Amino acid sequence: MHVQVARIGKPHGIRGEVTVQVLTDAPEERFTPGARLVVEPERLGPLTVRSARWNKEILLLGFDEVADRNGAEELRGVKLFVDSDDHEDEDAWYEHELVGLKALVGDEEVGRVTGLNTLPAQDQLVIEAANGEEILVPFVEQIVPEVDVDQGFVRLTPPPGLFEVNSPEHRTEPDDGEGER
Fold it and tell me: What's the mean per-residue pLDDT of the chain?
């Protein structure tokens, strides 16, 4: 199965490098020179990593198949994938492995995993509660101590109020200063 590890952004410089939005916890392992990446749309790949370097907080990739800025521009928005069978990590899960798992608190089913939000600080499990509400749960060991894909569940130990605070009616939008006066 292919797992998305990045999305290509804008070109950088004139030698075919591109910026990428990193969607993996292990960019140093995924983007080594010589690594072949599956791409979407398929007609633009596969791509072979020629170079990978950080420019401040942005990862820049060069590919053997792309020699100049024009070629790099054609890759804008392309999704990069690896074969998940080639990169197994015992303590890492992909969204496709988590979606559909029962969410348990103790032995009580409180919902099902419907997604995984990958964020810079920490990931969030998206849980659809029994009443249909979407609950966002920080995907950290203290709150999600057990993930058992084979048995089909994640076990949660949420702090008091987590489900209420992270339910849609309790989420607050940032104040844009345009409220009623």
Answer: 83
Low-confidence ranges of the chain (pLDDT < 50): 86-89, 181
Does the pTM surpass 0.70? The reply is no
Beta sheet of 108-117, edge-to-edge order: 134-138, 124-129, 108-117, 102-105, 153-156, 146-148
pLDDT score of 8: 92
> CB under 8 Å to 153, separation ≥6 — which residues?
101, 102, 103, 104, 146
Cβ contact 17:60 at 8 Å: yes
The amino acid occupying position 148 is D
Beta strands in the chain (DSSP E): 2-12, 17-22, 36-40, 47-55, 58-63, 79-83, 102-105, 108-117, 124-129, 134-138, 146-148, 153-156
Closest CA to 113 of 165, 149, 79: 149
